[in-house]
Amino acid sequence: MAIPKINSSDPKEHAQNVEKYISELKHHLQDDIKIISEPKAKALFETAADILDGLEKAFSDYQSENFGGWVNDPDRPTIQ
Question: How many beta carbons lie within 10 A of that of residue 19, not counting itself?
Answer without folding.
Answer: 18
